[in-house]
Amino acid sequence: MNTFVHFGAVAWLFVATFSIKSQAQQLVLIGGALKTCASLSPQYCQPNTVFPTAAKTTRWFQITPQHLTQLSRAWPTGSEDLSRLMTQLKRSDANKRYSYAELLSLLDSGEQPLSKRLDDTQWALLLDSLEVPALTQQGTRQVEMVQAARTQLAGSQAILANMAALIAATPSKKYLAITASSHDPYDAADFYENLLNDFDVKGEWLALTIPLAQALSSGRCQDLATLRQQLSTSHSRERVYPERTQQEQLWCEKGVAALIAKIKSADAVFFNGGDQSLAKQVLFDEHNQPYPWFAALQSRAVIIGTSAGTALQSGGSNGHGSVAMVTNGTSEAAIKFGAFDQAAPADNCSEYQSCQAEHLNYLTYDPKGGLGSFTAGILDTHFSERSRTLRLATLLAHTGQRLGFGVDETTALVANVTPSHTELQVMGEHGVVVLESKSAAEFVYHYLQPADSAKLDAKNTLSLTLASSASASQALSDATYTDAIFAKNGFKNLVQSFCQSGQQTFSYDFSTAHKYALTLARSTATQCQLNKNKTYSIKNLNIIINKK
């Protein structure tokens, strides 16, 4: 109950600021994994949630000779898995429509399960080539429906409710959803367009895709279908989502001025998750020059991002230079190899060090950043869960930026940005890491949870306030943490264990290409405040990394 009262206060603060100072902007920066109740993700719904029969509950596939020919023609050259795949698929019934689960079972029914052998690109191509529309009995397309108010997780529901309150407080009371981060932006359109229906907030998909951006900017609307085939990472979308590709064509024919007017008609915009490098391609052309609609997007009163959509908000510049946008990599590879100003690998498989080729785990970044609505420092997401602290610390040291902000999953960093200062609050299930880089080998670690807050003044000077402790913090024992710091939640577990121990210093040795000593050290300014969820909020914890 208190959680919702607190978030309502965030929305109220924005209403007052919006009406007084038109330059003010509210950013909702979600770390990903919002786990929202929807017809394609019922596992996140409260018990006894029921969707109408028109709701899409699975993707459907048909293995026809035409679809197999299309798949064979589009398959990457040099792949050894095509013949095995074709052999397995030809055992199917060409007249049968397969659900996703049934297709998976078919692929894994042979001697060698195929679903685990395909990389991201191959898997996406396979699904796209075989997919057919999900239709109702009346022949209309089934739509993914969202019942956000019936989301199980209280933190997710609180973030969604606060987003709705912020949008409802604007004059237009609506938002545009941009799904360019997705491999398949047409498939993601339903979810993001319907996301806040339960709160009576209207959403509308904006067909701002990579093919549309290029067709509009080059005057090639007649070639949009061809550009979709050449530039999109998805295939056969005209067959599955005909009305979405028709919307795309319509906006191309209306022209740039109409697109800008459409963006300005809504006071809020939502950028989805996926790949921030894809989303950037609808903001900047191949020469890294902003498209004509860039300024309209950047100036919306409310900007919301999740996962890649949050990372995309990094950009612009501050007193420490240009603010980069992180695009790929793991903490382990960052420590081992450093950071690279280059495009992210095509096969983005670095969720939990899952890439087989080492270079696919490289820390890469875009030095020019993304949309640049957040200029205080570099944003990162899925942060504690994917143990990205050392990745962000490496990037700060490499680029010369002083501040980094790592948002955990199912968590949002809400930034109220005004010309004179920025106020930061945390909501959701977990927390936000704030890193202050002191040198290439030393940084200060803060961990903020809901009810904690921070403020940045006009000079980007950071001040933090931790909420009162749930109970007195007592030293239980010396830190004996031994799990790998690069594993899921590894770095977070290390610092939490250190706070619990009450020790003044703790050294942890680890190896990549070299041996390193990671030292955690308290100072007189260090605070570890135990939250009601038995997790410590942390302020001013010194961390030093030395090569041994």
Automatic annotation (TrEMBL):
<dbReference type="GO" id="GO:0004180">
    <property type="term" value="F:carboxypeptidase activity"/>
</dbReference>
<dbReference type="InterPro" id="IPR029062">
    <property type="entry name" value="Class_I_gatase-like"/>
</dbReference>
<keyword id="KW-0645">Protease</keyword>
<dbReference type="GO" id="GO:0008241">
    <property type="term" value="F:peptidyl-dipeptidase activity"/>
</dbReference>
<protein>
    <submittedName>
        <fullName>Cyanophycinase</fullName>
        <ecNumber>3.4.15.6</ecNumber>
    </submittedName>
</protein>
<keyword id="KW-0378">Hydrolase</keyword>
<keyword id="KW-0121">Carboxypeptidase</keyword>
